[in-house]
Design a protein that fits this description.
The protein has helices at about 5-15, 20-30, 45-50, 80-90, 110, 130-135, 155-160, 185-195, 200-220, 245-250, 275-280, 295-305, 310-315, 335-345; strands at about 55-60, 65-70, 75, 95-100, 140, 165-170, 225-235, 235-240, 255, 270-275, 285-290, 320-325. It is an alpha/beta fold and about 350 residues long. The protein has 2 domains: about 5-10 and about 20-215, 3-Layer(aba) Sandwich (Rossmann fold); about 225-350, Nitrogenase molybdenum iron protein domain (Rossmann fold, 3-Layer(aba) Sandwich), CATH 3.40.50.
């Protein structure tokens, strides 16, 4: 069974879990982070991993060089999206912990595999002592926020002092957060596949992801792009999404974002709080919004309908809800979001 068919239904059901805390943290935290390099796979990583298990695998991640003489045997996923990726790479027996488990639900086809993996935290990154207690040698996270010492989390340096290395999703590296792309997850799959000595599993995941993205591209090819505003609503607070992985999801799904990533308000961060007039003046044909669950989705729909009754997106009821967990850097759910949005924007193409 392919991940495409299995996860489409399970992601819809996963909206019953709360996500607003984690997404709000992503909106706020990266502003205080120091820029690091872009995460890319080392040239020899995949070939090294396919040789003897004792060979050293080296990758570059957020400007840091990570080297592993052997496959990590104590691995932690700091977000369900990273836990899912690790499970799909087939390293469940090497997992010493999972974190932020209530931020989003794992897809049904892998959720059972997580049973018995120690839960280090539920709605925020684990406390420093809780993470170090499981003695990890590899910790995978969506952003560098999960390693903010000022928040009480284990820093990358503290992990290193305790024999662990941190792998941050390529799109979550501080200096790439605003320019991240959907295909960055392919780098993460390949890197982690090399580090964990499971290159064949990684290649299967890469191929499946590439085929899904290619299918979307083919289906919408030659179609006129509808204008799209991507927003996040919390109460009466309205934020526009103009850059980052979130904006690339819109582009990949065939939408023309009404917010320009080169605009000053998105120079330092992928989101900006706006006045409703900004949406009215741009008159988008569709609105995409992240949600933390059914209640948040309904509240957002009500806000959009009440606030923008004459905007084409509302008039034509083209309001597309996406689980916030599918908008995190390094999430295989990024592809789910692309497929969902594309089908809504181009209903006759699928």
């Amino acid at each position: 069974m392919t991940r495409n068919t299995t996860r489409a239904a399970s992601r819809r059901r996963s909206r019953t879990r709360g996500l607003s805390t984690g997404w709000a943290a992503l909106l706020a935290a990266p502003l205080v982070l120091t820029a690091c390099g872009t995460g890319v796979t080392g040239d020899q990583a995949a070939s090294d991993a396919s040789d003897a298990s004792g060979d050293t695998v080296t990758v570059t991640n957020c400007g840091r060089e990570l080297s592993f003489d052997t496959a990590p045997g104590s691995v932690v996923g700091l977000m369900p999206s990273q836990t899912e990726l690790l499970l799909r790479l087939g390293v469940r027996d090497s997992m010493a912990g999972q974190a932020q488990t209530e931020v989003s639900a794992l897809p049904e086809d892998v959720a059972g595999q997580a049973d018995g993996i120690p839960v280090l935290s539920t709605d925020a990154p684990p406390a420093r002592e809780d993470l170090l207690a499981v003695a990890p040698d590899l910790v995978a996270a969506p952003t560098e926020y999960e390693f903010t010492a000022e928040q009480g989390f284990a820093s990358i340096e503290q992990l290193d002092e305790n024999g662990a290395q941190a792998y941050v999703a390529t799109g979550g590296c501080a200096d790439r957060r605003n320019t991240a792309q959907v295909t960055d997850v392919l780098t993460d799959v390949t890197d982690l596949g090399a580090i964990l000595r499971v290159p064949e599993e990684a290649e299967r995941l890469v191929q499946d992801t590439e085929e899904r993205l290619a299918a979307v591209e083919e289906a919408i090819s030659g179609s006129e792009q509808p204008s799209v505003a991507q927003v996040y609503v919390e109460g009466n607070s309205l934020s526009a999404i103009g850059a980052g992985i979130e904006a690339d999801i819109i582009r990949t799904a065939g939408g023309a974002n009404v917010f320009d990533p080169d605009s000053p308000e998105f120079a330092d961060f992928f989101a900006a709080q706006i006045n409703p007039e900004e949406i009215v003046s741009r008159s988008p044909e569709a609105v995409v919004f992240g949600v933390s669950g059914p209640e948040h989705e309904e509240q957002t729909r009500e806000y959009l309908r009440d606030t923008f009754p004459e905007v084409p997106a509302v008039e034509n009821d083209l309001l597309v809800a996406i689980p916030a967990s599918d908008l995190y850097p390094g999430a295989l759910g990024n592809v789910d979001a692309v497929e969902t949005i594309a089908r809504e924007l181009y209903p006759d193409a699928f």
